[in-house]
Amino acid sequence: MLTLATLGFAVNFWAWALLSPLGPRFKETLDLSSFEQSLLVAVPVVVGSLGRIPVGALTDRFGGRAMFPLVSAATIVPVLYLGLFGHSSLIALLIGGFFLGIGGTAFAVGVPFVNRWFPPERRGMAIGVFGAGMGGTAISALTTVNLVDAHGMANPFLITAAALAAYAVLAAVLLRDAPGRTVPTEPLARRLADTARLPVTWQASALYAVAFGGYVAFSVYLPTYLKTGYGLGQADAANRMAGFVLLAVAMRPVGGWLSDKAGSVRVLAASLAVVVVGAAVQSATPPLAPLGTIAFLAMAAALGAGSGATFALVALLAPANKVGSVTGVVGAAGGLGGFIPPLVMGAIYSASGSYALGLLLLVLVSAAALAFTVTRVRRAAASEGTSP
């Protein structure tokens, strides 16, 4: 079940990230401004993020067995639209990107589904392994531009649509919800209101907005940053972004495993400290080899581990029948955390011709999250009797 859920997450995230590698191409062919390009790659992020709130609550109610095939099948429509018709204008791309956000809601299906299959002492690792499915964005980064160059614009979208259809059928046939799953009976609005009153919801949301939000922001904007700031070619920039993504993906289960062993708060604090240092170094725009590369890879590892640690915290502190609802809100916060930075970076570069201020803002936000982790979150974890 963990393998099937991780596969579904990866396929849906592959679809969710299809526009990002093509951002520089659309900027040139459609004569987009830096802000319009940032908006284009950010729209699927914000829709997929906000959509996690109802999808997480619906997963609590109907289970992952129903929701995984539904989300995957629904994502096929915008993928086909973008590949066949919706890439000739900014408006068409924004419409397609809006509905492409459906793929991003798969995260809120998988976390409660996986959580119920594992005992508390193993959930950090299990959810970390599931979270490695965010490597679907690396598939998109490595293949989309090359497939477009070789076979035309429609090709990567058609392949992704076929993968989504195959997974939807596979999930419908093979997925099973965990035995003894508690089905909530309260109305959706009441369950969401109860979720909003849980301290872990907002503590984890704040941390995930920085950890996963930082990952999402880099995964959608790094090709543009490298092309504009360092003059790299489109394919080279996309490949380097894929390396960033793959390292973050590999570190997510490590972050969950370390949280099971050493405590989520310690892992989060260490991860945020690395981001502070890495962003500070990169704000000076050092040479890409080796210092810039080291700074970016260090941030990738830290953001991946921090994302895994955040949901290890959720798995321990959230009530069992509200994990989906909490995941939806926290996942939305993470996605929104990834929506804002590309817009800010595009606006800052348009105004100043430099990305330095944007990276310094990341330093300040990460430092604030670090302070929050070692104070409020540490006390909350200790009060619940878990290792900080």
Secondary-structure map:
Layout: H1 2-16, H2 23-29, H3 34-50, H4 52-62, H5 64-84, H6 90-100, H7 106-115, H8 120-131, H9 136-151, H10 154-174, H11 188-196, H12 199-230, H13 234-262, H14 264-282, H15 288-317, H16 323-352, H17 356-383
Describe, in plain words, how this protein is organized in 3D.
With 388 residues, this protein is mainly alpha-helical. Helices cover 82% and strands 0% of the residues. The chain has 17 helices and no strands. It has helices spanning 2-16, 23-29, 34-50, 52-62, 64-84, 90-100, 106-115, 120-131, 136-151, 154-174, 188-196, 199-230, 234-262, 264-282, 288-317, 323-352, 356-383. Helix 4 packs antiparallel against helix 5 (64-84). The longest helix is centred in the middle third of the chain and has 32 residues, at 199-230.
